Amino acid sequence: MTHAQDPNDALFDHARALIPGGVNSPVRAFRAVGGTPAFITRGQGAYLWDADGRRLIDYVGSWGPMILGHGHPAVLEAVHRAVDQGMSFGAPTERESELAEEIVRHMPAIEMLRLVSSGTEAGMSAIRLARGATGRSKIVKFNGCYHGHADALLVKAGSGLATFGHATSAGVPEVVVQDTLVLEYNDVAQLEEAFALHGAQIACVIMEPIAGNMNFVRASIPFMRAARELCTKHGALLIIDEVMTGFRVALGGAQSLYAKEIAGFAPDLTMLGKVVGGGMPLAAFGGRREVMEQLAPLGPVYQAGTLSGNPVATACGLATLREVAQPDFHARLAERTRALIAGLARAAADEGVALCGDSEGGMMGYFLLPELPGNYTEVLQSDGARFNRLFHGLLERGVYTAPALYEAGFVSSAHSAGDIEETVAAARAVFRQLAS
Ligand code: PLP
Known about the structure:
This protein is of the alpha/beta class. The chain is built from 14 helices and 18 strands.
């Protein structure tokens, strides 16, 4: 063996001297799983290459955006053309409306939208808009759901339904989170009770429809139905955070799947990010026209951004959405993703390892548990040490998965049947070690 880790180690040392933890977003630092992060030098199709020259099959996909894999020719061409025309104008461009039209076409609950630069901004702005539109202060979020790092959302549950949350980050004053109520995901009775206690003050309920920030946990149909009905009854807005699921689980997002099960289902506001920007800093929030018209310059709710609707980012997003809107795109992607989960489950069962998984479109999750969890408390039953062994075992065999137990995985249209087979074979070898 050569000293294969050396280039990554050297880059990590350099980065740590200059950037807190050596990374620009904490999960990248491998703190949960230990070891040195792979420093990526390039990506092509389903693969990444790191500084050691290792080829890795990529199931992180930049945490969701890279649904076409890396370096898709149609996207590259659109981006190159846009760059040649100029980086940023701070003035409107036609492409912003083209992208808005493409989004609205696939998501009928979005009548108007605004482009921003990150999912965090989308969440922060959607909440301000919900508060402004309703004239109320309180917001409801769910344990284990992540909606970006806006102050009011960095909060954990208080001691009961009458008590609001506590800040989970230093630097967030308690006063900023005192209007955030954190409830258990998929608990209809608790949501009903919260509305019974605070209904007249609740501006919005915000939720991930398939929670990818606790690996992969679906909102049950009764839970989603209750959220919609309670919001309507009490005059609160339902915000569905599709930053991860939008264009990823289905062309119309997760909301299109719930609309098939719940007659008339539609959120009031939707957050988008990740796939909508195709790998560039672009996100959006949108919804009912009369709500969106509360935004400046039409209405009293302020929201802005120097780089919002950036011409290069919109070109990238538009080219990406046009590809994912091709006939059968999601059906093919879903089939491949299901094949991966089924292969992992089979290999684990053969080797005597308890594993269960789930997927929708190109989003997936698996747990070293006998049954799928339904909320964050159940997700916490997972054995972190075993997960870390699985993670490192896969990485050593050239398979790059999220370096944390609480993260969903992503398959792209560039992943071939051969990539899936190679991944399952690598996992089988790791399961054998885990079982012994
Ligand atoms: N909402 C969800 C569901 C997310 O998964 C994320 C990021 O992972 C965000 C919001 C925040 O997006 P960003 O990281 O672009 O700020």
